[in-house]
Amino acid sequence: MTTISEMHDPLDIAEAWRMEGRDIAIATVVETWGSAPRPVGSHLVIDAEGNFEGSVSGGCVEGAVISEAVDVIASGVPKMLEFGVADETAWRVGLSCGGRISVYVERVV
């Protein structure tokens, strides 16, 4: 039997955490533009205490997503989160880091 510490897929971990009785939310990358480090469909699973597994941005916005996810767990109201540069002109001036990412956060019941 695979233990939670041996799991790599955040959705498998989410299922295991639910089986333990934890309240959780799943954050999913739904749109990217530019140099977003994680592709659409990437997941981050968060519990009510702020424990998490997975990644939606390679560390760039995880802290903000975790904080919002804890609120989503408490309220039950999903959120669409937007992070990144405001317009495409940033790429024309040669910024080495940028892009935009949209992350949908929903409570799993």
Task: Throw out a few tags for this protein.
single chain, alpha+beta, about 30% strand, disordered N terminus, XdhC_CoxI
Secondary-structure-based class equals alpha+beta
The overall pLDDT average reads: 84
Q: Give the helix proportion (percent range).
A: 25-40%
Count the beta strands.
Answer: 5
Which stretches are low in confidence, meaning pLDDT under 50 for 5 or more residues running? Answer: 1-6, 89-96
- Tell me the strand percentage band: 25-35%
Largest sheet: 5 strands, antiparallel
Query: Largest sheet, order of strands side by side?
Result: 3-2-1-5-4
How many helix segments? 3
Number of domains: 1
> What shape does the CA trace take?
globular
Task: Walk me through this protein's architecture.
- This protein has 109 residues and is α+β, with helices and mostly antiparallel strands.
- The protein has one domain.
- Helix content is 26%, strand content 30%.
- It has helices at 10-19, 62-75, 89-92; strands at residues 24-33, 43-47, 52-54, 79-84, 100-108.
- The protein starts with 9 loop residues before the first helix and ends with a strand.
- Residues 17-84 form the XdhC- CoxI domain.
